[in-house]
Automatic annotation (TrEMBL):
This is Uncharacterized protein. InterPro entries: RmlC-like_jellyroll. Keywords: Coiled coil. Residues 2-29 form a coiled coil. The lineage of its organism: Eukaryota, Metazoa, Ecdysozoa, Arthropoda, Hexapoda.
Amino acid sequence: LRQQIKDVKQTLQFEIEQLKSQLDMYRSVFPLHVRGSQADIKNGRKTTAFLDSSHLRQRAQGISAEPQDLRNCERHLKKFEKTDRSRDLIRNAILDNDFLMHLEMCQIREIVDCMYPVDYDAGVVI
């Protein structure tokens, strides 16, 4: 009987950890705020109470690129003129990409500004 209790306890603990992980994932996607009963009315305005994020589990920060040295940070990017139509086309293509869509808008603007046209001959593998 004790072994069964121990097994059930381990199974439940594993499920709890999985649910906490899923909850952290959803919290990272959706804004943390509370509506309804916890909303205060001050000066005739309805305000929304924000959750204190100190109770959230700390997550490791990911590294998305090689560290940059100071020389690379000081380098200015060369920008190329484009029509508004070209800008919109490039921006929409980036936003439709599963990986690039997670970039911040300022990063997308920099990419769009720095892109330039390249012509390739027919039949060339890119």
